[in-house]
Every structure is written in C-alpha cells, then in structure tokens.
Amino acid sequence: MSDYRRTTRECTLDQLQPELAHALRKYFQQHQPGSVEAEILMCCETSSARTSTSRLDARLNSDLDTITTLALLLTPQRLIWALNGERSGIVVASAQLKDLRVKVFAPRGTRDFGLDVYGRMENTTVRAGGKLLMGPEAAAKKFSEEVGKAMQKLYPPEKKRARPRWLGG
With 50 as the cut, is the pLDDT of residue 1 above it? Predict the structure, then answer.
C-alpha cells in the first residue's frame, strides 16, 4: 500500500493552483448562478505526494497519480472540491450540505485529517461517497471544524430527553 505526504494550507480562491482556480471559476459559471466567490466561508488546498510503495503496489498502481492537489471550498449551502492529478487531470464536483452526510475522521497511522463524504452530488441523481484527505496542519483541522459547524446548523444535535423518574432519572 502507498504512503502519502500531505500538506494543507488555508487560502483564497485566487491563491489556489492556477489550473484549479480556473476550473472552479468555469464550474461556477456553468452550475451556480451569482457570485459563489463571495459566499466562500473557507478555502484550503492540499498537496499529496505518494512517498513509498512496494514493488507490487508500484506495478499494480502504475497508472495512479503520484502527485495530486485537492482544493476544498465551503459555502453556507455547499461543499465544493476539485482534484488535479498529473495523469488524471482536473475533476470538479459539489454537493449541497443538506444532501450530504459528512464525518470528520483521522486516517489510521497518520496525523492527517479527512472528510468521509456520502450523498447526492449536485446536478445528478447519483448518490456517491468518498474520502477527501488533508494533511496534519492547523488549516486542515480548521476546515474540518468549519464543515462540522455548517452541518450542525443544518442538523442540530438532538437534545437528550430526561429519563422518567420511574427509571431512576
């Protein structure tokens, strides 16, 4: 299995890798009317580099990207991400927060952060899931916390009901 070195930084849309910023602006023009840039609560960029592989892994996964860049944008209603790999090119996707289930997690054996995302992708009827992985930096933790806060606004935690007196409550 491959190991990755990830680095995450907080940035603005203008500070993203130029190819990703261009792809995101094009995506906004095609899919979201209005100025999405003004709605961005937080933006971060994660660079991932595959560091070590076994010979078998290198052979089986020779067509995978060794270096990728992931841009994550959070608005009050959406989570938007764009991935750029040297072989796979650029892919942009988004989903409305109300259509997502998002869980913050820490990948085993690392200090990294990740978002486990499942739901209906915007402009499709398809439900899909995946993991958006970030590095161990404070920006990754902050982004994860912001996503958690946005989800809690949509789905406040249920209040615990008091136990009935007859049950010893």
Answer: no
